[in-house]
From TrEMBL, chain A:
Superkingdom assignment: Archaea
Keyword tags: 2Fe-2S, Iron, Iron-sulfur, Metal-binding, Oxidoreductase
GO molecular function, one term: 2 iron, 2 sulfur cluster binding
Protein name per its UniProtKB record: (2Fe-2S)-binding protein
Pfam hit, one: Fer2_2
Amino acid sequence: MIIKFKLDGKEVSVDAEPNELLLNVLRDKLGVKAPKYSCGIGECGACTVLLDGEPVLSCLTLAVDANGKEVITAAGIEEEYAALISKAFSEEGAVQCGYCSPGFAVMSYLLLREKKNLSEEKVREFLRGNLCRCTGYVNIIKAVLKASEVMGGK
Amino acid sequence: MSSLNRMNTRILPTSFNYYEPRTIDEALKLLSELSPEVRILAGGTDLIVKMKARQVEPKNIINIKRIEGLRYITEEKGKIKIGALATWRDLEKSWQISKKIPALFDAISVMGSVQVRSMATIAGNLCNASPAADSAPPLLVHGAIVKASSIRGTREIPLDKFFLSPGKTILMPDEIVVEIEIPVPPQRSSSAFLKLSRTAMDLAKASAAAYLEVEDGKVVDAKIALGAVAPRPVRSLSAEAELIGKPATEETFSLASRQVVKDISPIDDIRSTASYRKKVSPILVEDALKLAFSRIRGELG
Amino acid sequence: MLNIAERYSFIGKDIPRRDADSKVRGLLEFSTDISVPGMYYGRIVYSPHPFADIEEIDTREAESMGAVVITPKDVPSKPFNIRLVSVNEVTFKDWNILTFSPRYLGDPVAAVAAPSEELAQKAAESIKFKFRKVYDPILDAFESMGSQSAPIREKILKGEEEIPVRRNVGAELNYLEGDLEKGKREADVVIERAFKTNRRYHFQLEPKTSLCVPEHDGRFSIYTTTQTIHNTRILIGQVFGIPLSKISVKRIPIGGSFGSSIQTNLVTLISVALCMKAKKPVKISLTREEDMYDHADYEMHLKLRVGARRSGELTFGELVNIMDIGAHQVQAYPLLGTALGWFVSLYKWKNIKYEGKAVYTNKTPSCAFRGYGAPQISWAVESIMDELAEELGMDPLDLKLKNYVGLGDVFWGQGPTVRSVIRSDGVKELVEKGKQLIGWDRRKPPSMKQGRYRTGIGFGRSFHTSGAGGPISGEVIDYTGATLKLNEDGTLDYITALQDHGGGTLEAHAKIIAEELGVPPHLINIVPSDTSVTPYDVCTHASRGTYVGGEAAQIVKSKVFEAATRILPKAVNPEAFKLVYDETLEQAVVYVEGMKDMRITLSEIARTSWQRNWGTIAATVSYRATSAPPTFTVFFVEVEVDTYTGNVKPKRVVAGADLGTVINPKLAEGQLHGGFVMGWSMAYLEDTIYDRRTGELLNKGMVVDYKIPTSQDSPKLEDFKVIFANTYEPTGPYGAKGLGEAALNPVAGAVANAIYNAVGVRFYTLPITPERILEAISGGGKQ
């Protein structure tokens, strides 16, 4: 069936079978490669996107569920936040291999938008669904806290 | 025989007929026509995984996510009502749950990730009938009732009677859970839930919920339930019997919690061992009782 | 002495990595992200039995669906080794692209390609097998060596020579040094223990992928997850008989590796075979579950016997290393040597005996995993050294500092054929600092601890080599290369085959070049490259902090000075020139000290060379490091054990590293953070467990039951301290050494020692799970 939704700010329409996953439609049919396949069963968070503002695992979401909704990937985060997150992540050394980074970016965006003055504990809790095998999370957590401070200072 | 050739977690390796009803009546009608070869899709965090692993290959899927009016948490006439499409994250944000059903709130904070909690529904968690379901012990000790509908009508099932065996509930193939109802607990009561797992985001190796009602230093009501230590989430009536009528003291909690081994039958699996589960179950129950009691005292004080 | 950041313009300063922004925004493409029009999707077909001989493979149904199918009949049959690192004579070859004799459940027996993944999946499932013989899987190394066991392999190739395999032992290495009997006689205390390590899965976030594209002129372009584009090209050339000039392997960012793509992945060869038959681009991306069947760490059964005098002086060390390598050899033989190298380079045992065997089983083949055996050896050695210290009534720190292999000692780098003398050593400094930070002196023995929650502090140390170079050409191939060219505006293009799998290798190269030539790192282009335009590089492995960029930069520098003498006519001798980054001009400047008019910017030189037809200033170098100096690391870890549930939490960590000059402090700290969490996970969580009957992974490749730590499973930020030693490695670029693996190696040992210090029980099997802890505590004894 033809489904229509807003993807990273643009209206798109695409033909998708009911058994097609949102992740694969985004990547293979719409060319948005920011969400990644990694575990395939919702354990690692690399495929995270926002669906009508809620964080979902696109590897466990049918593409048809996006019909009429809005999808935001790491490539489509509001520029103000995207720049902030990118700067904090790169300055704090929060990026190594980078395969998990888009998932972390989406979750960081959501968290920064939802809550002010983040605590370390909150950041750790919020990001526990995003696995990283390189950084040991330390610099990622520092980066999100730094971004939160910058936001708070505005 | 290896399953490697059949599994594919990158795609949904099978196809199915797909239905997207807009009303509950439409859904019930479809369900009665298509059952038993049908599965209901809500959050998808469990069903889609099972389909990728080829553990289930439904011919028909009814996606109920677009049904209006099933996503709510309300309180009326002393009951908290949770709609079938309410997600874990909805519950997490609900003051009724955090204030009145503390054991469930505990479970939410240790269940899955923010992403999973945003997708998964509490009703779905019950319907999967996993012995390790995090929502089950808290809802069991809070005396939750499951409301199930079919074209034949709606019935109320006490959660005690809901689970049969791993993956099996008492629901008929044409029935769907529409609501979960939890009685608002009285004053001087509280509850708690604890679980042991390998990491902060994991299924339970063992879990326990405790509900306590205390009056004049005496336990007037108590309920204990455990997860992942039996073929289904179970109440520990033996422990409960040792609590009711006794003084609310650490000694009582300790003695009562030792009774739980009578009501559980854990197994060895990839996550843990039977002997470990047997050893930690009383610990979890005792800790949960202490935590619930400290909450009562906190409220009274 | 000036500190590093003051001494240099770029080195020692935190400069954000150039790829961070595109990674965070999800714009950077990994192999899995690359697709081309008209591409087919490939699926690999596996044997349903882990140990069997196949009579026939029926592909008719798959073909009738329109899929392209290959079976062992369609591919070359000469065995090879997927890892080219040893010289040919000691390369053990037992691999085929597809096989009629599957020896574990992940052995590919056929493959299909189709226009969609769904169709490929259906086609793959339709393939049927007729078996000649099905054997019971052998899942235990000792059972495998027993006389009752069926031979997993009867013959393999060593180099070009066919050799028999006896009792499923694929490779062996024994070693003797000194007089063991004398060492035993001199010992006042002898301890013997048997250790078993876990078979960890790398769990790199990007599952392996390969896309093979047939070009219109007969060449093949390959986009794949690999740490070594050149070895990938060579192996494809060797296996298929394709001239190397017709193969171009692209260097694509890799979503983590930790050693899992140190070899040429079989999926790459399968994609080439499918592509050749389909005459279309074919992409195969492994699913997570296939990936988990593709590779694992080496499971080691270590028997250690060590002795010491009352004074704490070691007198001998004996190690038996039985490695369960799974169904194939990737680099079992070199690891037998390297494991010995780690053992002898930790402490001065003086008299040494080593017996190493690599044993086949019907399990996932073992390949390099960050640390290449050092995390396992270090865990065992650091555990037994603590036991020895207790027996001697010594502080383990004192015993270790007394006996460790350090400054001026001979160090084995990567095994017996790669030796050098240690010229920088910050171990004592790190131990002193770490001791203070963790509060070592307040540490109490386990007997003084009580209550439900008990804390314990443990120490572990280790090291890793920076590369596998050495003064002579041994059994290991190790050299690399690069091209550096000065562009017409004074910026630089840096072209190398070296891969960055996340650690920041190429960033470090850019900084070294920047320092050398005064060109800021952001004006140095790290050119996306492939095998066609780069000199040979063996592999980005073994934490090689290579100097190749610096080598090229020095040649470029001398050419720049030559050009400068043509522009500044008074200058007669290029050696009088200096080249630095000028902060006011924000660019590189060539000058002669004390002479005001003898100054010219690098961009002016570059422009002039171009305008006056002097030609391009560039250098291409091929470089072999003449030593592989050790990077030393120490970890102090405090844990809290819940003695009622066996749960353990890491409470505080002090991670110390002697990596010489710290080129990029933030990235270096990040390596230590990541190393700790991975090591913690090794000590406490990870293992791949097999179903004894079916040979299947119990978790079926699903990561829901392969747990690694989450953001909530490590100590608070304020409780994780990183310290660096103030050392300078004379053989390293700007005094630097590599870090990636050293950051992991001591962790499991430190954690195990901390758990012992908390509960007074030693564990000899990894992981040390709550189940094992509770069992041991309630049993009251050792486990």
